[in-house]
Structures are given as C-alpha cells and as structure tokens.
Amino acid sequence: MLTLEAIKALILGVVEGFTEFLPVSSTGHLLLIGHFLGFESKGKTFEVLVQLGAILAILIVYFNRLLSILLALPSDRRARMFVLGILIAFLPAAIIGAALHNFIKDVLFNPMIVCTTLIAGGLVLLALDDMPMKQKYTDVMDYPPLMCLKIGLFQCLAMVPGVSRSGATIVGSMLMGADKRSAAEFSFFLAMPTMAGAFAYDLLKSYKDLDFHDVSLIVIGFVAAFVSALFVVRGFLAYVTRHGFTPFAWWRIIVGVIGWIGLYFYPVR
User: Fold this and answer.
1) What single DSSP character describes residue 156?
2) How far apart are CA 221 and CA 227, in angstroms?
C-alpha cells in the first residue's frame, strides 16, 4: 500500500511527464503543486531527478529517428550538422546551469516567482500566436549552427522556474524563422542532452544526501513521468500544428493566477 508521501510523488511524477514537453513549465508546476501538497525534497532534488522518466519517454518515441541519424553520421553531412547544432544549442545551458546551480535552486525555486513567470510567459505565447512571421525553416535538420546557438541562449531563460524550457526554445526558434512543428521538434531533441545533463549534474551534487526513502520516491515519480510523457510526446506536434499555442498561454495564465491566490492563503514559509 502506498504511503501518503508516495502518493504525492506519484501525482508529481504524472504532472512532470504531462507538462515537460508542453510550453507550460514542468518545474514550475512541480514547485507549485509540491508546495500546496506539502511535499518537500532534499535540496529540490526530486524535481530535477524525476525528469529522467520524461527523457526515456522521448528516447523511445524518437528511437528510430535517432538511430537513423546515428547510422548516417559517417556519410551524411546533413546528419553531422544536425548533431553539431544540438550540441551547440546545449552548450549555453551546460555552462550557465553549472555556474548558477546553487543560486537557481536556493533562490529561484520559489512558488511566487513561478506564478509570475507563468503569467508573463502566457502573455508572450498569446502575442506569438498573433505575430505574422516568415517561415524559413520547416525541418530541424536544416537549422544552421548560429541559429542553434541563439536557441540555446533562449533555453537558458528557462533556468527561472515557470519560464518553460520547451516554451523558451520554441519561441526562440519561431522568432528566427522556424515553423511551429519544427520548433517543437527541435525542442524535443534539445531536451535530451539538456535534461540528461541536468540529471547527471544534480545527482552528482546530491547523491550523498539521498537515503532509501528519497530514492524510492524518485523511482515512483520517474515511472509516473515516463508513462505520462509518452502520451504527450506522441500528440503534441500534431496539436500545435493545428491549434497553435493559445490554449497553453491561457493555461499558464490561469495556473499563475490561481497560484497567486493560493499563496496568499498558504504562503511560503
């Protein structure tokens, strides 16, 4: 029988997997819901390590595509340039994330900041859907290296919880001429090294402080995140292509406002 803490970890795992690849900020949702559930993890480690489930989900969904790119590397310049572009886009987050790791978790992992950035990001997405933009790129394999670097810099904005990693990369891609579908797909590919790097770095920093209870909650959250992320990854690209980002913008704004109200009655200690 699951304990109360295990049930909370299960709920948060489902939320992580469901929101990780949507432009709504999975970390922001985890921090808010965790606050109102009274869920505390040592050094906010759960919120980072549970992302491994979402990483594995996207690896499975894109396994055939990744394998074909890997096999084509020796002979296909386009495949090599794509991999180089992903690595270039990953680099800013790797450097800045490592340098500001403690500040991000100790200062920015704050529910009030999350509510504010959720609302601000929602307004940005509403504006984005109404902006007429030229679409120069419709295939992630054609993104030039400089564009990838700029997308990587946009991704760094998501170090502030509530901004959304996928939202920042999608907005950055579209501002530089990508269509909605390829922008979302590039965000998926960039998530793999970014989330894997964050997982490995946080685990290296915190593994000595984790006990069996902490690990068991992380495993529960991981499994829940894996299952829920599978459903989202498969349907998100088609949904965004048809409907745009307006539903996610309003989702962010509503959650942010509800969070503000909730924090008035149940403030951060």
Assistant:
1) G
2) 10
Helix-strand-coil split of the chain, %, nearest 5: 80, 0, 20
- For the segment 34-71, what is each residue's pLDDT rounded down to a tens digit? 999 998 777 678 888 888 898 899 899 899 999 999 99
d(CA 53, CA 47): 12
Residues 6+ apart with CB under 8 A from 82: 69, 140, 141, 143
pLDDT in tens, 78-129: 999 999 999 999 999 999 988 998 898 888 989 999 999 999 999 999 998 8
Q: Which residues contact 155 (CB under 8 A, 6 or more apart)?
A: 89, 92, 93, 165, 168, 169, 172, 190, 194
**Contact by Cβ (8 Å): 160, 212:** no
CB 85 within 8 A of CB 148: yes
What values do phi and psi take at 178, rounded to 5? -85, 150
Buried b (16+ CB within 10 A) or exposed e, 227-257: ebbbebbeebbeebeeebbeebbebbbebbe
